[in-house]
């Protein structure tokens, strides 16, 4: 928590080879999916033939390869990844506040990629501690917590294959799992449509959140 830098994004082939070796040491034959993280068009990783070559070789061994996206340019990154014809999965942020990746994720799904959704509760902004009034009210009406309703919105997307939970306690996990019992309908969609933020605004606010 006291680190000068909490995250280092190095998408080079050398780092990929090193980390893949470390992954194999830990997982052995159990490695079935390998993802490069925080890919963006601007990083150049999707045009780096050395990196792509390493991923093609890994895929030829029977390991699925994927990527995760980040930042306000997620849409362009997803479309560029699909165009490579290389990736089996894409992991992206989609939630009631940040919806910009929705259409490209639908296109990725249609192209045969598995879609993994992260940050469904917007790093705590869609939980009880930070829920906008409209979400808190809609959740109360349905007898669930705000995070359950927020995750139900993600689960309702026809392209969402896996929705990740960021729960850190058993109570949070139980609240998250309640999303499976919530019916997301047109009324909820309409009531919470105004929560959506511009992508640039969302990611600027996300960057300002404290590490906790």
From TrEMBL:
Cite the Gene3D superfamilies for this sequence.
NADP-dependent oxidoreductase domain
Q: Which intervals hold domain NADP-dependent oxidoreductase?
A: 4-192
Q: What protein name is recorded for this chain?
A: NADP-dependent oxidoreductase domain-containing protein
Q: Quote any Pfam family the record assigns.
A: Aldo_ket_red
Give the source species.
Microbispora siamensis
């Amino acid at each position: 928590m006291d680190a000068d830098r909490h995250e280092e994004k190095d998408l080079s082939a050398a780092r990929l080879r090193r980390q893949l070796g470390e992954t194999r040491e830990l997982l052995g034959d159990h490695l079935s999916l390998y993802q490069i993280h925080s890919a963006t068009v601007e990083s150049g990783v999707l045009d780096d033939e050395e990196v792509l070559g390493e991923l093609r070789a890994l895929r030829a061994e029977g390991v699925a390869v994927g990527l995760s996206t980040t930042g306000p340019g997620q849409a362009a990154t997803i479309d560029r990844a699909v165009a490579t014809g290389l990736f089996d999965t894409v992991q992206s942020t989609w939630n009631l506040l940040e919806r910009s990746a929705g259409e490209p994720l639908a296109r990725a799904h249609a192209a045969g990629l598995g879609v993994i959704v992260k940050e469904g509760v917007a790093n705590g902004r869609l939980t009880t501690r930070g829920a906008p009034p409209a979400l808190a009210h809609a959740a109360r009406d349905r007898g669930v917590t705000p995070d359950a309703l927020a995750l139900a919105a993600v689960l309702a997307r026809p392209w969402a294959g896996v929705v990740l939970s960021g729960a850190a306690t058993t109570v949070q996990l139980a609240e998250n799992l309640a999303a499976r019992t919530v019916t997301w309908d047109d009324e909820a969609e309409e009531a919470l449509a105004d929560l959506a933020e511009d992508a640039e605004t969302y990611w600027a606010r996300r960057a300002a959140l404290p590490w906790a």
